[in-house]
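Notes from the 1:1 (GR / supervisor)

We went over the backlog. Supervisor wanted to see one worked example end to end before approving the batch request, so GR pasted a single chain during the call. The sequence is below; no edits were made to it. Supervisor asked that the structure be written out right there so they could see what the output format looks like.
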Amino acid sequence: AILTPTSALLIIFSIQYHFDMLLIAGMALYSFAFAMYQIPGMPFILINAKKEFHSEAIASYFLTWSLATFLSGGITYFLTVAYPSFFTDKNILITFSLLGYFSIWFVLKINSEKKSIALVKQHNIKYDYDWYLILKVVFPTLIIAVGAGFTIPFI
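Structure output shown during the call:
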């Protein structure tokens, strides 16, 4: 909750003042912080949501990220059209980064009460999964993600 907006601001100001090493550190910190938002989400849902609502909870989890992306894009567009001299790309990024600090309040509202987890059979990761099918499904997404990763810096 603290690292993501802080690292985003670090990136913005390191670009402005041409601090290349600070930019690299900020990007690494941002990647780590963003992963710490994404990775615990699914286990949290699986532990805290009732089994019959897992599909809806998982869909809502991903929908939230998509909706946030859509809304931030729309807000950015309307602010740059309405007030182009004030809402520059830099000012909008700073505004969204500062708004990110409100996530601290939501993190503090999470009920950290321990829940008992039913023990499940241990799986042999090498033999209990159809790795060919998993790779076949994941490969197109991997290609798209790598292509987007190489494309975005040039946009």
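Supervisor's comment: The helical segments are 3-16, 20-38, 41-48, 54-82, 89-99, 103-108, 131-151.
Batch request approved.
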